[in-house]
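hiii, so i know i said id send this last week but things got crazy w the move. better late than never?? heres the sequnce for the chain we talked about at the cafe, plus the structure i predicted for it. fair warning i was half asleep when i ran it
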Amino acid sequence: MSDLLKILVVVFFTYITVQCSQLPVTVPANTIDAENPDNSTDNADNSADESPTTTVIPTTEDQWTIVYNGYGSVNFDSENGIVMEPQPPTGSNTHAALVLAKTTQENPIKDFRTTIVYSTDAQLRAASPNSWEVFWLFFNFNFRDPNNISSGELTNYFIFKTNGIELGRAFDDDAATEQQVFLYTASTPQIVISQTYTLTLEKRSQNLDVYINNILIFSYTGSASPDVLYDVPGMIALYTEDARVTVYSVNIENWD
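okay and structure toks below
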């Protein structure tokens, strides 16, 4: 081989080596290092990988389960939200509607941040409506028998009422007997009917922060029974009692 040809061969392979070294290297997402099966490194900060993500739950029928509609209606619309309107009550009777977020039925959550944008459009009792006849948010919601929605309910709840705010637990001693434990009440703030609000709950174990329109309204810490929250994986549920409500959006960030 002539000297000139040898030089050309060396130059060619040098060029190829340099070009290949500049190509990006793609590691498959499911690749596991045999020396390091959790894919961690001694000095790496993997906290970003563990950051919770926010799930935006569409207000469409396929994302929600109607448990009951109070002899009225529950309508879903991707743009206009979920409208829950039980039958107007007469006399001393009451009607309620309840829907469950399917994503939390399939994957119950214990600790979380959830943000609901909603309005209590109208109270349906013709004369002297009660202060609690508004939208309720249920969280850590469960049925006594997960396979039987008639078995009774256990849940934490928050209500923004016409005479203040209320946090509590609601449960059925049996399928027909409802009970409540009041954990926190205050006379302010008070809801204005037909006004839209942004409600945010942040829960970690027995610690709960409640925000209305991005303002911290109160913090609660459960200490000893019976003044404690249900602290078990459960569902997020939307509830109304003798009121027409519209839920415009629901976001959930799972902190478990």
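btw The first strand starts at residue 54 and ends at 57. thought thatd interest u
miss u guys!!
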